[in-house]
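Appendix B. Chain record.
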Amino acid sequence: MRLPAKFAACILASSALAACATTDGADRSRTSSSAAAEIGTPYASTYRPYPGRPTALVGATVFDGTGGRIDNGTVLFREGKVVAVGDSSLSTEGYDRIDANGKFVTPGVIDIHSHLGNYPTPSVDAHSDGNEATSPTTPEVWAEHSVWPQDPGFSRALANGGVTSLQILPGSANLTGGRTVTLKNVAARTVQGMKFPGAPYGMKMACGENPKRVYGSRGRIPSTRMGNFAVNRQMWLDAKAYDGEKRDLGKETLKGVLDGDILVHNHCYRADEMALVMDMAEEMGYKVTAFHHAVEAYKIGDLLRENDVCSAIWADWYGFKMEAYDGILENAALLNQAGACVVIHSDDANGIQRLNQEAGKAQAAGRRMGMEISDGDVIGWITLNAAKAMGIADQTGSLETGKMADVVLWNGDPLSVYSRPEKVWIDGALMFDALDRKRRPVSDFELGQPGEGDVK
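Structure tokens predicted for this chain:
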């Protein structure tokens, strides 16, 4: 859909959605001076949901994200919230009815590990803003200050993958890469207009090959895994001694971690290193929320369960470097069998468009090993479990009364490679409709470009 540049951020416009304004006429992307002045939140969210209609999805197979499945189900939402989820006996009076017979409904897909906006398309050096690779520890930087809202990857993730929320992380060149940011996958002119309201910050950390390769090649610490741990431990000791008399942006972030306000997302592949990181966390008084990539997590499922640490993993990426060599296809299934938290993530602009398929592949690998995991539980790997690890499960990740109406209607079984999102709602607003060309998002950057909108 072509729109004048003035209205490019209104790519999902309808008669009820005029000039990207909220109902009170406020610009949804404008940074509020009062919010900016709020202590501790200098870059506050200005996100406002797009207008929606009271909607009833009727006759679908519903996976609620918590493991539940309802055949011939009904999902009701209005004013941006889920009202009820149940069987065909639910009244739909006062709702726009959508016949979903033969189709499937899930919560919006959530990607816990993305670099969209920080490494956007087109992939050129001028857009490479994900790694502040000038020091092995850079807790002072914030990923949101590199996010380019017009990255076409956002709309691809929405239309092809049903992704409604995602966490953007710094890269893994550094032991401590900086703060992460959680976004709603909507069109906005500013990153503040995309920021998920109330989502806690995360802090990206990394262990293993990447930091020691980057800094060892420069002849400085760390050049070994023992160097990695020495630098990190000293960083935490310095942070614990910080008295706050003189502002230090990096130590403010680290103090937020120690106080439990900022969640640690740790890039780590090997089981032995994950165990060491958990020991260091206990020593220093912080908690690892999730290990990302974690190809050897299956070896320590019991330790991860006991420490309440999620594993954000791929279905089948392995072997592309030495620390990824011992990955296996059954990683997710074995973690699930151990009672540990499983999240399927992308770390890739293409993979984020197919997280449903990745979850299905991980399920199939477990089945071949004799482990039957229900479809409902597997849907949780790309919805509720991700939300839990990002600290937003009280607001989204499942179809439960009062939660955000982040909903995907699939044209078939969402765990099948043959299925695609037919419609996607974010906070109850219809943001993508495969059957309506006026609701296929195109960013201002794409207007007039080859492949505009990636329409399939």
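Further analysis of this model is presented in Appendix C.
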